[in-house]
Amino acid sequence: MDMLNEMLSQFEEGDFVNTEDIQKDTEELFPKGLTLNTFMGDLSKLLNVRVIPFLLACESDNDYNAQIQLFYTFMKGYPDQNDIERIDKALRILRKQSDSIEARKLLELSCQRINAIYNEDSQLASELSKKIETIENE
Questions:
Q1: Is 138 within 8 Å of 105 (Cβ atoms)?
Q2: Which range (11-15, 59-63, 113-117) has the least confidence?
Q3: Which residues of 67-93 are buried (b: 16+ CB within 10 A; e: fewer)?
Q4: Are 90 and 110 in contact (CB under 8 A)?
Q5: 36, 74 in Cβ contact below 8 A?
Q6: DSSP 61-120
Q7: What's residue 40's pLDDT?
């Protein structure tokens, strides 16, 4: 019963965060306590409009490392952490070599795959996995 009350309280207090709230200019990329499990909204928009550009624009490696850890924390409920690690790896490459076509493609496909899994589109997720695998094996 306590868990049900807590869930209802989250809805009433607005603890579930919408994409629009996150996209407002704030100091924090991910407000304290926000996770994929409490996020409600367009994950693709969040990743492509807010997260990826923000991480690419980090001024120092220390800043990037701090922010990417927040991203890992946000995504801890995501079932395939390899996608998160692939995004991190691609971003690290792009921060040093912005013209890396392979890193850009892996970043794009990984974000699409995360969105497909988040939206329970297993067929699309499988197709994207094959494309990612092809690029990684070249």
A1: no
A2: 11-15
A3: bbebbeebbeebeeeebbebbbebbbb
A4: yes
A5: yes
A6: HHHHHHHHHHHHHHTTT-S-HHHHHHHHHHHHHHHH-TT-HHHHHHHHHHHHHHHHHHTT
A7: 83
Unique residue bearing structure tokens 């974000």: 111
Q: What are phi and psi of 27, to 5 degrees?
A: -70, -35
Render pLDDT for 36-81 as a digit per residue (tens, 0 to 9). Answer: 888 888 899 999 988 999 999 999 999 999 999 999 999 999 999 9
In one-letter notation, the amino acid at residue 19 is: T
Comparing CA positions, the residue from 116, 46, 47 lying closest to residue 79 is 116
Task: For the chain, give the number of residues.
Answer: 138
Per the CB < 8 A criterion, the answer to whether 90 and 106 are in contact is: yes
Write out the two tokens for 1.
């019963």
DSSP 8-state assignment for residue 46: I
Helices 81-96 and 101-118, axial angle in degrees (round to 10) = 150
